[in-house]
Amino acid sequence: MRAEDVLCPTPAGLYSKAGDFHIDPTRPVPRALITHGHADHARPGHGSVLATHETLRIMASRYGEDFAGASHTAVLGETARIGDAAVTFQPAGHVLGSAQILVEADGLRIVASGDYKRRADPTCLPFVPIPCDIFITEATFGLPVFRHPEPEDEIAKLLASLDQFPERAHLVGAYSLGKAQRVIRLLRDAGYDRTIYLHGAMEKLCRLYEEEGVALGDLASATVETGKKGDFAGSVVVCPPAQIAERWARRFPDPVACFASGWMRIRQRAKASGVELPLILSDHGDWDELTATITELAPAEVWVTHGREEALVRWCELQGIAARPLHMVGYEDEAEE
Ligand SMILES: [Zn+2]
To answer: Its Gene Ontology molecular function terms (predicted)?
Structure first.
């Protein structure tokens, strides 16, 4: 069997002819395997979905219980047979419930890793290296300029600012799935035990994380209808990134606009979006994590997708590893980082 029969890129996403299924399809398909709940990977309207318990819950929370014709739970580490393929889900370390998918057919092993990172994250299971012939890697931060600092140091910056400006509210822009909960958990781990306030768009997923065993401490809704502006002095308010520059932000006392994202590594971008305190915090591997992962797995071949494909392909070739860019469209590297 050729690799292309096990998995190959198509306009609808990665397709397995051996198993007649798609991985993270970008349009409705009869049978979808989903790596994680971010909107560009997990879309509604498929005939059936196979994903981890947490990812299925996230999809139901975002799209409603009828997000697919049928849903099936993938148990991490257990192999299921689909047509002529065998599939196994293993943790990807990206967000709660995120998984890599190993597809095996005719002795050939291909790993579709979805989005992943290698740094410790208290809100999800760590990435599990899976020996394989072909490793499909993301390349969101696939340039040597991207080297993420330690998350604890970024959180320390936020805590220092809270100390320095006790009269100002700190609005932390963070994506609602993964980043928001990670920021909150990191604050707790750093000893911050005050109430953290949430924009309405964060509430459902924070509750879901807590129900799945990720303790987030004392949370409250960031509504001012019942209180005074001054109530939020010195508080942390977590909100969608787009809100930090919006009218919504003006209800808080002299807000400090913070944004937790790997993109904050680019200073001009932080400046352009009106961010006063950029926090470089990413749920994707940086250049060192991507290259270290490929070195560790030592696959015969690497396929590179979404992001800066060419630099990572070139790096692989210099290491003597065959590599190709997949040029798949429909995966946003900024919508939900
Ligand atoms: Zn993602």
So the answer is: RNA endonuclease activity
